[in-house]
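Async update (no meeting this week)

Hi team, since we skipped the sync, here's where things stand on the single-chain job. The sequence we agreed to prioritize is pasted below, unchanged from the tracker. I ran it this morning and attached the output directly underneath so nobody has to dig for it. Comments welcome in thread, and please keep replies under the output.
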Amino acid sequence: MPDWIEAAIIFTLALALSWTAGFLLYRYTMKALGRVDTFWQELVARTRGPVQMALIIMALGIATNAAALSWRGAAFMQHALMIGLIACIACVLKTAMDIWIALHLKRYRIDVEDNLLARKHVTQSRILQRVGSILIVAVGVGAALMTIEEVRQYGVSLLASAGAAGIIIGIALQSVLRNLLAGIQIALTQPIRIDDAVIVEGEWGNIEEITATYVVVRIWDMRRLVVPLTYFIDEPFQNWTRRDATLIGSVMLYLDHEVSINDLRREAERVVHASDLWNGQVFVLQVTDFTEGQVEVRVLASAPSAGKAFDLRCELREALLAYLQNEQPYALPKTRIDRLPRQADAPQGSADSGTEPDWRWEQTGPEPVLSALTDTPGDVSTSPGIPQTEDSMPAKDKTLNDLFIDTLRDIYYAERKILKALPKMQRAAQSEKLAAAFEHHRDETETHIERLQKVFELVGKAARGKTCDAIEGIIAEGEEIMEDFKGSPALDAGLISAAQAVEHYEITRYGTLRRWATELGMKEAAKLLSETLGEESAADNKLTKLAESSLNAAAQ
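Output:
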């Protein structure tokens, strides 16, 4: 029989036997590991190929010795098989490391609110995984090279040349090696973690990926900023979630001196408490500066994460701006103009001077508003060059229509104040029926405000409130009742009395407005006002029945 046929038969048998051995080994090993830890099951399943290949390599190595091969052929075959076996072992080691890290990280979730510990473990594991992969590859390549006989035989000369080459390569790969060492340092000290909120190079974003040499930062607008690992070792940067994800967001307001800080604080507190973004820890509104032209107000509110803190700040700005426009338009920043006389003995614009008034601008805010000081008799609104408004119009020139608009703004302000007060009364109520009545009327009040806005549209005016001292006093009395009689059997009776005082005021206002709208020929406006008047009367009757049925008796 020829030598090559004999060798072919030997190698074929070796392949068949090794493949069969690998199949049986996998089958019975998985059966034996049926109730063992998941790690070993996963390891056996994912390394089936490399293990099978290692068995084949060992079988071929035995077959090489048995086959009639030349010395050179057998040596080459043995060398190739040795390198293949080293590669299989390295593959198994890397797979085992990947499986262990994957199973380890299953215990930690970064998609929850409090994920500080999870992000710590994920960051360490990912960095060490990449460093471990590099080390396994490096050791495998080194072991494969050591199988080359020439390297061992001429080691001295090769070592000398390798030393010179190593210097050159070390210089060329200096940045790569620094990043590898920086990765190990980051894994141990953790100045950054996966999903940390950071400011890098003036950009705000989250740590998306940490590789062996660089870090990917996901910018808020979905751009990616790629930064070398050494940056986070050598350069200063901001980490907003280093110890805790909670952040305090700030909102700055620049307002006129006429602003009511207490009302603004109550509105900001209401907005914050109603927001799902607030974590309930920090809220404060303070006047942080007071200048000649404006008041600086700062609002602080905390949120559970950087993204929610940003959204909470935007929500506060929008809500407070709408509040100021509707409830305190006079508090918005202004630019005033002072009109001063050129001569002490002849006021500008007077009949004696014979000249036009001199207007001197004084910048005190971003928007110009006329505010004139004059020594001439009469209202400044009647002076040349100043347009008349509803508020500046002389009393003798005002009509029933003007009175209608003025009263409409009064009740619009009152309804909005009532809408804010009703939730407090609902929470304070001890009776479930009374609390339900307050909740129902809150919904009705929202409808009343919408109707008033339609009436404003019908008369061609902007929906704007006018401070109503009467409703302010009624609501203040109700708050005193809630404070003084808290926990008392008489609390609900007091709440009903306060609520009916509000209803009676509204009934008188809506009744008057309906009559005036009818006289002015505003049929559609009168219809809307009549609907609200009916609902206010029904609410008052409901409160009366509640009081007479049980609540007044319970208070005795």
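Quick observations from my side:
The chain has four domains: 3-188, 189-239, 247-331, 399-554.
The two ends are 121 Å apart (CA to CA).
Reply here if anything looks off.
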